[in-house]
Amino acid sequence: MANSSPNLTHLNERGHLLTEQANPNSQTLDQLSTLELVQLFNQEDYRVLEAIASAETAIAQAIDLTAQCLRQGGRLFYVGAGTSGRLGVLDAAECPPTFCTPPELVQGIIAGGAAALVRSSEDLEDRQEDGAGAIAHRQVTDLDVVVGITAGGTTPFVHGAIQAARQRGAHTIFIACVPQDQFAIEVDVDIRLLVGPEILAGSTRLKAGTVTKLVLNILSTGVMVQLGKVYGNRMVDVAVTNNKLHDRALRMLQDLTDLSRPEAALLLERSGRQVKLALLMHWTGLDAEAGDRLLAQHQGQLRQALDQHSATLKDSSTH
Q1: Domain extent listing, the chain
Q2: Fold of 8-226
Q3: Is 94 annotated in the active site?
Q4: 67-115 pLDDT per residue, tens
Q5: What is the Cα Rg of the chain in Å?
């Protein structure tokens, strides 16, 4: 289970976690010209990509674990407070329009609930029991994945959620911007993103927030690739819910086939505005109902469905 407090013997000489330390490169921040300030931010943000590079193996493990659970009917939960919580909610909210996933598949849990998205509620992050309660409320099971996000590693709300999730048999992932020897925790995958002290000491909405956003982008996109939501580099499960997305769907069909725009529009309507199904129908000659069945047999994996159809045709032609 999570430690109740960080190991202070591994903090700096003043007992500060890495995310709370003062950055020596920004000691004269209030004396810099505007251009110098921008250049300093740009220089410090290089640490973000370095941190992700150092955590690549753990991030890949998180993707594989999450995809495996979701294939079996599980759900993905992001849990955080403040900036970390908002980033989790944002990533979860982007999944339905991008990948046409049901809203319950990826969920964001933030200390203080929806109100905390627009109004600071720092005091609520100290309530470990609220984190545990959020997990119980959502009836988390051993099929689910719970990702705890906390820049400094110590947020009680997150630790309450992680502990409750583990007690329920769920798989757990931890994302923090402090080294493991500053704050240890028992989870399935431990991702440490060491971007160093912030330009504005303790303001983890800066580098810590940026690196967290990027890693959540990678995590959710990697999972959706494994779930068959992507063909090549196209979001073939995009929800066609407005004019922009309808235009994107048509352009995708035109780019991947030899169809004119009117032909692509007709195909898209015949498929029920499902780009993946439309492509399968075009490349196989199947109608929408048969295409749906074939995709279902392959858990929505378009490439596998196409390979199976080709193999079936080849086999029937040799008999």
Answers
A1: 8-226, 243-317
A2: Rossmann fold (3.40.50)
A3: yes
A4: 999 999 999 999 999 999 999 999 999 999 999 999 999 999 999 998 8
A5: 23
Per the structure block, which two tokens stand in for 51?
Answer: 């941190």
What's the mean pLDDT when you consider all of the chain?
92
Type and span of the H or E element at 89: helix 82-99
Query: Is the predicted pLDDT of residue 268 greater than 90, yes or no?
Result: yes
**Bridge partners, residue 78, by sequence:** 108, 147
The one catalytic residue among 20, 44, 125, 198: 125
Q: 143, 134, 183: which is closest to 163 by C-alpha?
A: 134
Task: Evaluate whether 275 touches 290 at the Cβ level (below 8 Å).
Answer: no
Question: pTM here?
Answer: 0.89
Q: What are phi and psi of 78, to 5 degrees?
A: -100, 135
CATH architecture label of 243-317: Orthogonal Bundle (1.10)
56 catalytic residue (yes or no): no
Q: Which of 318, 283, 82 is nearest to 275 (CA)?
A: 283
* Active-site choice (94, 129, 198, 269): 94
* DSSP secondary structure letter of residue 228: T
